[in-house]
Design a protein that fits this description.
This protein is mostly beta strands. It has a single domain, classed as Beta Barrel (Lipocalin), CATH 2.40.128. It contains 1 helix and 10 strands, in the order αββββββββββ. An 8-stranded antiparallel barrel has the order 1-3-4-5-6-7-9-10.
Length: 142
């Protein structure tokens, strides 16, 4: 009987000690999304159909610069057609990327920042020009 009480006491004591509040004060906040750098197109989908193979996107680059501007190298059809400035709707929890061209036209497009196969990617979706066509570009940092 004594052994049973001792065993129960040990279990209860172990539960209390095991559930002690954590002293870990680490910062677990969401980091800001950093998209600065040069990005290449790895996939393009138009209205649900993959059209990547129809156009050679291998030389196309979009460069997001630290000063909030963007430009292109070897331009091909993209959701915006002119260089300008970029911004995210929220640096930590971004759902939109805003492009303001040098001619003051602003495009606010869907934005995600997934990690696929261990590599950070950008996915931008929108309907430039014709609303019947929706394009989704998957970009990878070079």
């Amino acid at each position: 009987m004594k052994k049973t009480y001792l065993l129960i006491f040990a279990i209860v004591l172990g539960l209390f000690l095991g559930c002690a509040p954590s002293t870990d004060t680490g910062d677990y906040s969401e980091p800001d999304k950093d998209i600065t750098g040069s990005w290449s197109v790895i996939r393009v989908v138009r209205n649900g159909q993959d059209i990547t193979g129809m156009v050679d996107f291998s030389r196309f680059r979009i460069n997001f610069l630290e000063d909030g501007t963007y430009n292109f190298e070897n331009y091909l059809p993209f959701v915006v057609s002119e260089p300008g400035t970029w911004s995210l709707d929220n640096r930590q929890f971004a759902f939109k990327i805003n492009f303001q061209t040098n001619s003051q036209q602003t495009e606010s497009l869907e934005f995600t920042f997934p990690i696929i196969d261990g590599k950070r990617q950008i996915q931008i979706s929108g309907s430039p020009g014709c609303n019947r066509n929706t394009y989704t570009y998957l970009l990878q940092r070079i």
